[in-house]
Amino acid sequence: MQKRILVSVLSLCLILLATAAFAGKIEDIQARGKLICGVKDAVVPFGFVDPDSKQLVGMDVDICRYIANKLGVELELAPVTSATRIPMLTQGSIDIAAATMTHKYSRDDVIDFSITYFMDGQKILVKKGSGIASVADLAGKKVGTAKGSTSEKNIKAAQPDCTVISFEGYPQAFLALKQGKVAAVTTDSTILLGLKGSDPNPEMWEIAGDYIADEPYGLGLPENDSDFRDFVNKSLAQMWLSGEYMTVYNKWFGPDTNYYLPTSWKMEIWPGAME
After folding, report:
1. CA-to-CA distance for 88 and 84, rounded, in angstroms?
2. Distance between CA atoms of residues 44 and 195, nearest Å
3. Per mean pLDDT, which of 201-215, 217-231, 248-262 is the most reliable?
4. Are the C-beta atoms of residues 232 and 114 closer than 8 Å to each other?
5. Residue 248: pLDDT above 60?
6. What DSSP designation does 108 have?
7. CA distances from 139 to 11, 147, 154, 162, 167 (A)
């Protein structure tokens, strides 16, 4: 009798262990009761600390909140940088990296990506009247950007004769520009728009030149969890089709903001998104 009880207990343990082993991210999040999203805390207007409320706010935050609501759970935010967002995702510290991350094939080796939820391109920010009108004018000059960003490689490919200085984040790179330590800051045009628009004297700065590279943003997701990836993609599609995406977009990039940016791209929508 005791032997049969022991076998039953062992079998139950094996079933529970197997269930746990195969539980996906959605089940983990719902069991936890909260979605943990990694967002930047100093990239206006995607993710930054509101000076009045002292809370993390921004477009990436609102995207995450929409997905959390779809899951029926609370939203928890964790600050990340360009250098920490992928390690924190692979280590399981966050469920989603919503952190102005360009979808690159090389990053697909360690994480998965959602469909593109924001389309941007890389440019340069310079002091008005500096005489720098394009990347060609940066030969022999220092250019600031953020560690771990695609901008580091893109600017070196576009202007091999410049010196790239990588900072912990874009605010530090912008500070170096204001102190005359670099001649330009380069990253996605919307981030440059945020830096310029947040400065007390935005008229002193200008975004110059043509796009250096396309920067399609995707949400970073855990590798090899297709159920979670499908859920996130469908949520983004529903957000776009319902009009909620443009409501959020205009909240941060609309004509009544300091970061006005008309949009002309459309999210890739697959049939059956609203079913």
Report:
1. 6
2. 7
3. 217-231
4. yes
5. yes
6. G
7. 69, 21, 15, 5, 20
Q: Which residue has the tokens 């998104």?
A: 273
Residue 167: C-alpha distances to residues 15, 70, 134, 177 (Å): 49, 36, 22, 12
Strands (E), the chain: 34-39, 42-43, 47-49, 56-57, 74-79, 96-97, 112-113, 118-127, 142-146, 163-167, 184-188, 205-208, 214-217, 220-221
Closest CA to 63 of 255, 221, 265: 221
pTM: 0.79
Q: Give the confidence band of 7 by pLDDT, cuts at 50, 70, 90.
A: low
Distance, in Å, from the CA atom of 225 to the CA atom of 205, rounded to the nearest integer, reads 43
Residue range 228-237: average pLDDT? 97
| Domains of the chain with CATH codes | 25-120+216-253 (3.40.190.10), 121-215 (3.40.190.10)
How confident is the model at residue 104, as a pLDDT?
87
- pLDDT value for 19: 44
Q: How far apart are CA 112 and CA 177, in angstroms?
A: 34
